[in-house]
Amino acid sequence: MGHRPRGPGGGRAARLVPVPRTGQGEDPTSTPSGTPTPTPTRSSAAPTTSEPAPSTSAPEPTPSPSQTPTAADPAQAVSDASAALADEVDALDGEGGIDKDAAKTLQQEIRDIDRALRDGDSRKLLDVRNSMLEEYGTNVDSGAIPPEAADGLDPLVQKLADAVDAYDAAQD
Description:
The chain has two domains: 3-58, no CATH class; 71-171. The model is unreliable at 1-26 and 30-71 (pLDDT under 50). The chain is an all-alpha fold. It has ten helices and no strands.
């Protein structure tokens, strides 16, 4: 913050120094005439001020390369999404919120997704994703996963499916 007030103050100091040098010192009207002379000096200061603006533009391209490292994140996104879904299925199973067989089926599908991810097998990962979505839909339709439980599981299932899709797209 000290630099910003000093920047204009520095311009004022530049006015005072050039005014006695450029003007006769006794002519106040020469002082305004002397002011345009320091103005080119200020113009030199203005490009200095313009330099931070391109610096501000530099971080904008920086996020684009930051998205490149995000290409490594799809595997982590799958892992995180599968862990979140597994935790919710465990909680619902423990509370009796979903059928035990439905919980076992979903947990197995989640383990299969994790295994395919560890193996780096994108094709298997997609196959298991599709199987999980089918099993999940069947269990919701049959009532093994009641609507109240499905309300909590739906976004987690979708997040996992989306993460698998993003992982697959990153592998191409």
